[in-house]
Structures are given as structure tokens and as C-alpha cells.
TrEMBL record:
Record has Protein biosynthesis as a keyword: no
Keyword entries, A-Z: Membrane, Transmembrane, Transmembrane helix
InterPro entries found in the cross-reference section: Biofilm_reg_signaling, HisKA_7TM, PAS, PAS-like_dom_sf, Rev_trsase/Diguanyl_cyclase
PANTHER family for this protein: BIOFILM ARCHITECTURE MAINTENANCE PROTEIN MBAA, DIGUANYLATE CYCLASE DGCP
Protein name, as recorded: PAS domain-containing protein
Coiled coil: none
Length: 386
């Protein structure tokens, strides 16, 4: 039974490798490729260990598994830093140190028959299962790998607070999928989960995590878009950002959009666009037409409270033009329109003033000429000089 589970896990890992290669241009694809490849090594090597009867053969494939166990935590941290766009924080010295320790551990494992620094005793129990008693050095090296994995967990969990909507669910699926094996291994080590035989191996604990990450890839397109610290970009923008899913429900609003729409509470999430102040019919039409960019003007409020906006709606399409949602950019034109109206009113006022002044001048000139005729030419000259 366990052999079939290992085979299933290996095929899942292989599918993950193929998927990571297909999205290789996306941030996080390369460490995802490495993580799936290392998981596949663990799965297939665990299956071979169970099937082969001899101590030497089992030990050989147990050693092969250590490649995955030692380097998978590094891939987890690499994936977390790349996926959250924080990879620049790694220095060259840190990378060298993180690679040196598991590499040294792997070399010591493969040469353990000469110095026994990693294993105290290796034998087969009555059930034919390989049993290894580890040294303190062995535990320290694998403890370092666990620490690296926890740093990756910290990076991903911290990024959850910077994202919302679909991006947050993407991160949660990634966190649960990658760290569920560690949780199951901890529960097994404390005796809270009682497994016997090869079903208790660490390789089996990777299966639920692989399935969760796979579901996240299919359901939420984990690596078609990557999260980033939204509060450092979106909330600094003067334009409003509105993100809808394929059903027309709100997935994300930045601070400017919430101020424009006067939606200051946290109840806007998953609200349909028809339940917002936005002109829903025009919005949904632009949202579903899948035109590259749709732009139109609209107004919110009445009378003195009326505000003018321009909306630009861009569809978010997956492969084969499958609609994932839309991104809308709102620009507040209220002050611009008010200034334009004020200029028009000023132009009209200036025009009326000019007409009034011209008519007044003509009337005054006519009056002076009439008086000149009455008083004679001399008076005309005097008034003209005056």
C-alpha cells in the first residue's frame, strides 16, 4: 500500500515539475521546479526503499532521500523570498552558508561508513524496516534545515498581511501545502499520530501538502500572478484600484478607491459590484466584453456633493482567454471639472462685461456728440481735448 502512495506522490511531483517548467518565466517558478524535483526524489526513493529487501539496498535509497530532505527547506525559503519579491535581502555570504551546511551533511551521510559521525547504528527491525539511530551532529544539521524552513514560513505569513482577496488565498494555500508535512512529522514525533511501518515515513507526510499545492495551482492559479506588498504600492496611489473576480465580486480595493466610493468598513470583500455605488451595468458590460481597455466617465452623488470620475477597465485573462477578473483604475476628475466650469463661467462673465463696457462707451460718445451739436463747434473741440 505504501509503495502505491509513494508512486502517486512521485507522479504528483513530476506533474509539478512539468507545471513549473511551463510557468518558468514567472517569479517563483524556478524554486518551485526545484522543490517539486526534490519532493519527487524523496517519493521515488522511498518507494524503492520499501520494495527492496536487503539492508544495503534500503540504505542506498535512504541516502538518496536525504538529497531531498536536506535541500527542500532551502527551496522553500528560496520560493518564499522569490514569490513575495523579497529575494534581494539575501546576501552572497548567506547563500553560501545555507548551501554549505546541507552539502557538508550530505557528504558526511554518504561517507558515514568510514567515520560514523552521522549515524550510531543502522539495522533492519523484525518487520524488515530500516532503522537508523542518529548522532547529535546529524540532528544539528537537520535542525538547521528546519530553521531555514521556518524562516521561509515567516516570510510567507508576513506577506499574508500585505495582501487581500485571491492573493491572500494563494498565499494561504502555499503556506498550508508546504508546511503541512512538518506539522504531521511533529505530531508523529510526539506520538499524537500513531503510524506504523512505511506509512509513518516522512515521505508519506508530503502527500497532503502536494495535493493542497496542486489544488491551489488549479483553483487559484498560484503562479500566474504573484503577490507583492500592496500597502507599499496600491495605498500610495492617488488613483483608485478596483479588482473584480470573474463573477463581478470585489476582490481588492486600495485606499484611494475606498475613499472615492466611501466604503470605509471591511464589509466590501466579496461584495458584488451591483451592491456598490459604481454604475454596475456599465461596469459588468466592460468587465465581460474582454476588450483590451474600456474607458468611460461617470458621476457619484447629487447636487453640490456630485463627484466626477473616469474609469479604465482592463480584463484579466488566463490562457485561452479565460476570464479571471478585471482591474479597474478610477481617476477623480471632480476638481478638474470644477475648475473647467469656473473658467467657463469666468469667460462668460468677462464677455458680458466687455459687451456692457462697449455699449456704455457708445452711449457716452453719442451723448457727447449730441451736446456738441447743440453748443457749437468750439464746445466740440473742447470736449474732444478733454
Amino acid at each position: 500500500m505504501a509503495a502505491w502512495l509513494f508512486l502517486f506522490g512521485g507522479l504528483l511531483s513530476l506533474s509539478g515539475v512539468v507545471y513549473a517548467y511551463r510557468v518558468r518565466k514567472m517569479p517563483g517558478a524556478l524554486p518551485l521546479f526545484a522543490l517539486f524535483a526534490l519532493t519527487g526524489i524523496i517519493m521515488f526513493a522511498s518507494g524503492r526503499e520499501e520494495l527492496l529487501p536487503g539492508l544495503a539496498d534500503k540504505l542506498l535509497w535512504r541516502n538518496v532521500q536525504q538529497i531531498g530532505y536536506l535541500y527542500a527547506p532551502l527551496s522553500v525559503l528560496w520560493l518564499a523570498l522569490t514569490y513575495t519579491r523579497e529575494g534581494s535581502k539575501l546576501t552572497r555570504q548567506t547563500v553560501v552558508l545555507m548551501l554549505a551546511i546541507p552539502t557538508a551533511g550530505l557528504i558526511l551521510i554518504y561517507t558515514d561508513s568510514f567515520h560514523h559521525l552521522m549515524r550510531v547504528q543502522v539495522y533492519l527491525n523484525e518487520a524488515g524496516i530500516l532503522v537508523i539511530q542518529r548522532t547529535m551532529l546529524n540532528q544539528a544539521i537537520y535542525g538547521f534545515s528546519l530553521l531555514v524552513s521556518l524562516v521561509g514560513l515567516y516570510v510567507l505569513v508576513r506577506s499574508v498581511f500585505y495582501t487581500r482577496g485571491v492573493q491572500r488565498r494563494q498565499l494561504l494555500y502555499l503556506i498550508v501545502g508546504m508546511y503541512l508535512p512538518s506539522v504531521l512529522a511533529f505530531l508523529r514525533g510526539t506520538g499524537l499520530l500513531d503510524y506504523q511501518g512505511y506509512t509513518a515515513s516522512i515521505g508519506i507526510t508530503y502527500l497532503p501538502g502536494l495535493m493542497i499545492v496542486g489544488w491551489g495551482v488549479l483553483r487559484y492559479h498560484l503562479f500566474d500572478s504573484v503577490p507583492f506588498p500592496r500597502n507599499r504600492l496600491f495605498d500610495m496611489m492617488s488613483e483608485g484600484i478596483v479588482v473584480l473576480d470573474a463573477d463581478g465580486r470585489l476582490q481588492d480595493l486600495n485606499g484611494a478607491a475606498r475613499r472615492m466610493l466611501r466604503m470605509h468598513d471591511d464589509m466590501w470583500q466579496r461584495r458584488h459590484v451591483s451592491d456598490t455605488p459604481l454604475p454596475s451595468e456599465r461596469w459588468l458590460s466592460a468587465h465581460r466584453d474582454r476588450v483590451e481597455i474600456v474607458s468611460f466617465d461617470f458621476a457619484l452623488g447629487e447636487g453640490e456633493d456630485e463627484r466626477q470620475f473616469t474609469a479604465k477597465i482592463t480584463p484579466i485573462l488566463h490562457r485561452n482567454r479565460v476570464l479571471l477578473g478585471s482591474l479597474s483604475v478610477l481617476t477623480d476628475r471632480t476638481e478638474e471639472r470644477r475648475r473647467e466650469l469656473a473658467l467657463r463661467q469666468a469667460a462668460v462673465t468677462d464677455g458680458l462685461t466687455g459687451i456692457y463696457n462697449r455699449n456704455g462707451f457708445i452711449d457716452e460718445l453719442t451723448r457727447v456728440l449730441e451736446q456738441a451739436r447743440e453748443q457749437g463747434g468750439g464746445a466740440l473741440v473742447a470736449r474732444a481735448r478733454h
